[in-house]
Amino acid sequence: MIKKSYFSLAILILSVLLFGYQTVHGRYINNSSGSDFKDDDWNETFYDNAGLPSANSIKWIEENGNNFLRFTLNDKDKGISSGDRTPRHRAPYWERAELQQRAYLSKDSNYEINFKVRFLEGFNGSRESFFQIHQWTENCQTGPTMMLKIHYGVLILSAKKDSHKLTNYYVGGIRTEPKIEDLLGKWNSLKIVYSAIENKLTISLNESLIFENIEFVPDVCGIPHIKFGIYRPGDEDYPNNTSVADFDKFEIREIK
């Protein structure tokens, strides 16, 4: 009877830990509430995991027979999550219009991630992230392993360098090129080779290598997943310009 009670307790604990998840082909699928976003030329589904500041934050746009997502972030568009409305990382609050991957990436695989982005307006302020590989879960409240940002008009990469430390990042390379004025108004192709086995990143922009074998340190309890959109620090005294970006053609595939 005692052994049976312990077994039942173990099953209960496991069920609580995995609540809101199911597995498909060995990967966790997040069943949390939120609207799904997926197009015919995407092989992954994304969802609104943290709420949106307005009904106009994300819209489907059709152009020449092609559908894509447009993100618009205005000044004072505070994120809905409690963390966005709490002072942190040298900002009194955070502005966010962002989606999260419905599935999680495997922690023992390598991936090639391809997508297109078109910056239409803005992206001339501080730390405007447009792509992340995050690892936060309810049971592991930790930061992203990597973030691609436009920082005062320059494309930069930030990568996590110490486990369990949310703010300890380094810039993988601040480049004089590309600058936002070189990217505005046209579709740009990004390819990210993400190795969860070697903990390294290699990134190409429009088929040109811009970051190679940048190391990152994952949190042991985190589970990697993609987030994209616009996410940046806000400040009542220093207004942000409106930033607008289009995203399309997400393809994530496991590689050897």
Short description:
This protein has helices at residues 2-17, 180-183; strands at 21-24, 27-30, 36-37, 46-47, 58-63, 66-73, 93-101, 110-121, 128-134, 146-151, 154-160, 169-171, 188-195, 200-205, 208-215, 225-234, 243-255. The protein is mainly β and 256 residues long. The chain has an 8-stranded antiparallel sheet with strand order 3-4-7-16-9-10-11-12, with no helix packed on it. Strands 5-6-17-8-13-14-15 form a 7-stranded antiparallel sheet, with no helix packed on it. Strands 1-2 form a two-stranded antiparallel sheet.
Descriptive account of the structure:
The chain has 256 residues and is mainly beta. It has helices at residues 2-17, 180-183, and strands at residues 21-24, 27-30, 36-37, 46-47, 58-63, 66-73, 93-101, 110-121, 128-134, 146-151, 154-160, 169-171, 188-195, 200-205, 208-215, 225-234, 243-255. The chain has one domain (24-255): Jelly Rolls (Sandwich). The chain contains 2 helices and 17 strands. The strands form 3 sheets. The protein has an 8-stranded antiparallel sheet, with no helix packed on it. The chain has a 7-stranded antiparallel sheet with strand order 5-6-17-8-13-14-15, with no helix packed on it. A hairpin with a 2-residue loop joins strand 1 and strand 2. The radius of gyration is 19 Å and the shape is globular. The chain starts with a helix and ends with a strand.
